[in-house]
Design goal:
Elements: H1 2-20, E1 51-52, H2 62-77, E2 82-87, H3 95-115, E3 123-127, H4 146-151, E4 153-160
Parallel strand pairs: 2-3
Antiparallel strand pairs: 1-4, 2-4
């Protein structure tokens, strides 16, 4: 009889553990609710498109003028943005010649932006010549390679907001 009672108690205990865990009451730790989210100050991301030039030229193509017109609109919508206009060239040519060409390209872009209504004090310009190639040019003598075309550009860097 005693054996039956022990067996039944063990069976009840086993079923209890299986169905609901230990018969002891577990301590439940209540966690504080998370703090409310702090108000975010959204910083607007300003992006300006690069413009590209024909070989050995500092004159703006029609496509470059279209891109610069869009950039002017972005700058007008963000009147506190200050940019660096960065002229570049492909790898062909001497360092001295490419330096001057990159400076002429940056100047052409600067003049277009100013004529479009952007204050000169929001702009600075620099020429990098062939020192900052976007793509390596394995054979610089191929003046119309994809790499050379990519490197003949003016980029914009936001330097103040």
């Amino acid at each position: 009889m005693k054996a039956k009672i022990v067996t039944i108690l063990l069976l009840v205990f086993a079923v209890g553990v299986f169905l609901g865990g230990c018969c002891c009451k577990k301590a439940v730790k209540e966690e504080a609710p998370p703090p409310p989210p702090s108000p975010k100050v959204e910083e607007k991301v300003v992006a300006l498109e690069s413009v590209y030039f024909n070989f050995d030229k500092a004159t703006l193509t029609q496509e470059a003028q279209t891109i610069l017109t869009r950039n002017i609109q972005v700058l007008k919508e963000n009147p506190k943005v200050v940019v660096s206009i960065q002229g570049n060239t492909s790898a062909i040519g001497t360092e001295k010649y490419n330096q001057k060409l990159s400076e002429r390209r940056a100047k052409a872009v600067e003049e277009f932006l100013i004529k479009g209504g952007i204050a000169p004090d929001r702009l600075s310009k620099i020429g990098y010549g062939k020192t900052k190639l976007e793509m390596p040019e394995p054979n610089p003598k191929i003046i119309e390679s994809a790499a050379a075309k990519t490197n003949r550009r003016v980029d914009f860097k936001i330097i103040g907001q």
